[in-house]
Amino acid sequence: MSGAGAAMRRVFVDGERAELDQPRAAELAGLAARVRELTEAVVHTDVDAAEVAAVSEEIAALTRRLAAARRAAPPIAAPVPGAPHIGRQLANPVTGPLNPIAPPVEIHTRPDRTVFCDFTLTSVYEGPPGFVHGGVSAMVLDQLLGAAAHAAGAPGMTAALDLRYRRPTPYGVPLRGEAEATEVVGRRTHTAARIIAPDGTVTVEATAVFVLPRGLTPEALGNVE
Ligand SMILES: CCCCCCCCCCCC(=O)SCCNC(=O)CCNC(=O)[C@H](O)C(C)(C)COP(=O)(O)OP(=O)(O)OC[C@H]1O[C@@H](n2cnc3c(N)ncnc32)[C@H](O)[C@@H]1OP(=O)(O)O
């Protein structure tokens, strides 16, 4: 089995990672939300030099307090029967409520196995002035496409990701992401996705190929069915 396949098995099947119950996950999600606010404040602050120095020191002290009890790797959520394991990655950089760099994006699966998300990116994700960084759009779409492969019962790792940036993606407004699996061939799942602005304009289109690592089965990944 490939390194990635073996690692997934250790984490999701063998229980190598710490598993958080819902109240503990909610506590830490609250902490991450405060840090997101802090990031936003840092990017926009115009306080004077003395205040910048004082706040920097306080933040360093806070970081030391959190590091006083440190896990070797990010924790995951306890399994939910019937739900895919990807939803357990609480520190995922796109969907993880515990990760301050995640917007976070909440992905939903429809009965027809297509997926969607409604999300707003703040100016901390700015690329070209006034618009979302293309790499951030790619990251969100990679996750959404992966979720579509999962929802189709054919999960895998991203083997190829192709993007077409049609229009600039605005930040600070609600965006819609949509994705679906288009074809499953052996261990390969072909998928398509797009980001849609509030006025209905498709700003980014993406296609991706996901490949299930050798030795893994969709069932081992806690697939939906
Ligand atoms: C697990 C879920 C977790 C859950 C994750 C779900 C959502 C997470 C979303 C984020 C996902 C990521 O960021 S994942 C991180 C980024 N991706 C990675 O790091 C992947 C790095 N690459 C790899 O580890 C490997 O290349 C794999 C596992 C993708 C494939 O390796 P392999 O298993 O040895 O593949 P191999 O036998 O050569 O090929 C198998 C089949 O796939 C085809 N194939 C291989 N690569 C490609 C390609 N780029 N484009 C088209 N097709 C390809 C081959 O032609 C073949 O088709 P045929 O001849 O059989 O027809």
Automatic annotation (TrEMBL):
Family annotation (Pfam families): 4HBT (PF03061)
Keywords on record: Apoptosis, Cell membrane, Cell projection, Cytoplasm, Fatty acid metabolism, Hydrolase, Lipid metabolism, Membrane, Transit peptide
Enzyme class: hydrolase
Catalytic activity: decanoyl-CoA + H2O = decanoate + CoA + H(+); (9Z)-octadecenoyl-CoA + H2O = (9Z)-octadecenoate + CoA + H(+); (5Z,8Z,11Z,14Z)-eicosatetraenoyl-CoA + H2O = (5Z,8Z,11Z,14Z)-eicosatetraenoate + CoA + H(+); tetradecanoyl-CoA + H2O = tetradecanoate + CoA + H(+)
Localization: Cell projection, Ruffle membrane; Cytoplasm; Membrane
Bilayer topology term: Peripheral membrane protein
Matching InterPro entries: HotDog_dom_sf, THEM4/THEM5_acyl-CoA_thioest, Thioestr_dom
EC number: 3.1.2.2
Protein name from the UniProt record: Acyl-coenzyme A thioesterase THEM4
Source organism of the structure: Actinomadura keratinilytica
Source species taxonomy: Bacteria, Bacillati, Actinomycetota, Actinomycetes, Streptosporangiales
